[in-house]
């Protein structure tokens, strides 16, 4: 992973950008299409054929949906169903076949062969994107794409291919054919890419090391040690995923695309409802647009709305992984959101700010406990340690680890708020701002490069999604 990161940063990306800006505008999508396939095939060549199949399938479905959308709704809808079913079928087979067979085999009288299929990187992201194309064309929310190369560029766009954000077709339909690359956008992209890389390499990786050290200490951590550990994991997953999203948006800017923001400082949220408006925004938007609203949303009474919310949050959890803890995690937040909506909203709106934070942050942190532990027995053990107030407050090993990482914890805490952005926005001198931004980007690039060269720990948390 370290070698691949450096290879991408100093070979693949510079070469792609040089050639992209060297070729005539009308050939840029064609070049990007092949550059995307090289990028995806770099990690797993065998699954390039799967992506090409999805591209051809949804391009074909989109063609017939557009052809019959006005003249024969039934035929058009049939092509939408083909697109959705095949895409979900592929996702289900590669991501959930083993989980389903293992679950059934735990029931008496079932004896199915165990299925172990390597998970194609990013399949959850690009299958949702291709489905959004078919649905958007059917609804009339986006024009059909006549050029299969341009459509393939959308499906396999390398900046956000393997870790999101989920880019709906209607959000980039115009940009695919009419984007304008500018120096201002390129500069913005470089800065955003550096911010994301700094989040990932300098904060997320170190928080991951801290979490591993505390987690390995087990029951001797004490409740405070366990709490510090899960705070480290909360920082790791936020800076890892938001870092990748920032890098994707930055790379998109360099190529003339504008992707929607995927994170908006979620840890400053005062309620769980607000948290999910700020966390993984593209996934929440996708489920709202293509699942919750089609199910009826809040238009068919309170009981139906509760059922719709539970369905959405079951699917949200299951989307993250083929394991019961992810389902439990999704339903955990779904139930809290329902309680907030129908019981707590008025009280929370009137409560002091510090009370709102005391309410929301523990719920968010315990959500990450559920999310992390795939083994439910380990989840139960860690939960017991987290609430074991009768023993030592903090173990010696956990205390030593926390002290050694204390400066970085403070940096992570500040970086998870808009404080730095607010300070930067108050700088009125444009020349000074350019100098600060340039020095910052160079510093991040050099520091991240040195860190990647010297460390072997560079996990990719969202490869399985």
Shape, principal axes of CA atoms: globular
Number of domains: 2
Beta-strand percentage?
under 5%
How many beta strands in the DSSP annotation?
Answer: 0
Question: Helices and strands in order, then pairings?
Answer:
Blueprint lengths: L1 H21 L5 H16 L4 H21 L4 H33 L17 H17 L8 H8 L13 H10 L4 H35 L4 H33 L17 H7 L2 H15 L6 H19 L3 H27 L2 H20 L3 H11 L9 H9 L1 H10 L3 H7 L4 H25 L11
Walkthrough of the structure:
By secondary structure, the protein is mainly alpha-helical. The chain folds into 2 domains: 13-156, no CATH class; 185-464, no CATH class. 74% of the residues lie in helices and 0% in strands. The protein has helices at 2-22, 28-43, 48-68, 73-105, 123-139, 148-155, 169-178, 183-217, 222-254, 272-278, 281-295, 302-320, 324-350, 353-372, 376-386, 396-404, 406-415, 419-425, 430-454. Helix 3 runs antiparallel to helix 4 and helix 8 (183-217) packs across helix 19. The protein is globular and about 70 Å long. It starts with a helix and ends in an 11-residue tail after the last helix.
Summed up:
This protein is mainly α. It has 19 helices and no strands.
């Amino acid at each position: 992973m370290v070698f691949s990161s450096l290879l991408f940063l100093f070979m693949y990306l510079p070469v792609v950008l040089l050639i992209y800006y060297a070729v005539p505008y009308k050939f840029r999508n064609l070049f990007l299409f092949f550059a995307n396939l090289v990028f995806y095939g770099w990690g797993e060549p065998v699954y390039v054929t799967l992506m090409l199949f999805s591209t051809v399938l949804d391009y074909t479905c989109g063609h017939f949906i557009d052809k019959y959308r006005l003249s024969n709704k039934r035929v058009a809808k049939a092509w939408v169903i083909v697109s959705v079913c095949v895409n979900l079928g592929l996702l289900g087979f590669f991501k959930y076949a083993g989980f389903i067979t293992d679950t059934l085999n735990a029931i008496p009288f079932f004896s199915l062969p165990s299925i172990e299929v390597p998970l194609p990187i990013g399949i959850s992201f690009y299958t949702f994107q291709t489905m959004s194309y078919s649905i958007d064309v059917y609804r009339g929310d986006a024009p059909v794409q006549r050029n299969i190369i341009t459509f393939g560029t959308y499906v396999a766009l390398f900046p956000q291919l393997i870790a999101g954000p989920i880019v709906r077709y209607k959000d980039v339909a115009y940009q695919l054919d009419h984007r304008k690359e500018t120096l201002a956008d390129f500069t913005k992209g470089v800065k955003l890419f550096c911010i994301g890389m700094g989040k990932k390499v300098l904060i997320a990786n170190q928080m991951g090391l801290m979490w591993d050290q505390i987690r390995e200490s087990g029951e001797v951590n004490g409740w405070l040690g366990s709490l510090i550990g899960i705070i480290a994991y909360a920082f790791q997953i936020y800076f890892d995923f938001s870092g990748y999203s920032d890098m994707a948006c930055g790379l998109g800017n360099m190529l003339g695309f504008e992707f929607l923001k995927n994170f908006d400082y979620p840890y400053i949220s005062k309620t769980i409802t607000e948290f999910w408006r700020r966390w993984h925004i593209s996934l929440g938007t996708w489920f709202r647009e293509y699942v919750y609203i089609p199910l009826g949303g809040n238009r068919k009474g309170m009981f139906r709305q509760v059922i719709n919310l539970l369905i959405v949050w079951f699917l949200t959890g299951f989307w993250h992984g083929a394991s019961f803890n992810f389902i439990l995690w999704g339903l955990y937040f779904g139930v809290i959101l329902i309680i907030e909506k129908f019981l707590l909203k008025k009280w929370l709106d009137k409560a002091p700010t510090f009370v709102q934070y005391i309410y929301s942050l523990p719920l968010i942190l315990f959500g990450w406990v559920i999310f992390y532990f795939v083994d439910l027995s380990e989840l139960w053990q860690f939960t017991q340690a987290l609430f074991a107030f009768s023993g030592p407050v903090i173990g010696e090993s956990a205390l030593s680890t926390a002290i050694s990482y204390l400066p970085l914890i403070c940096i992570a805490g500040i970086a998870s708020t808009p404080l730095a952005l607010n300070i930067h926005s108050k700088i009125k001198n444009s020349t000074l701002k350019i100098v600060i931004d340039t020095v910052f980007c160079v510093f991040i690039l050099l520091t991240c490069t040195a860190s990647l060269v010297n460390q072997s720990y560079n996990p990719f948390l969202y490869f399985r999604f």
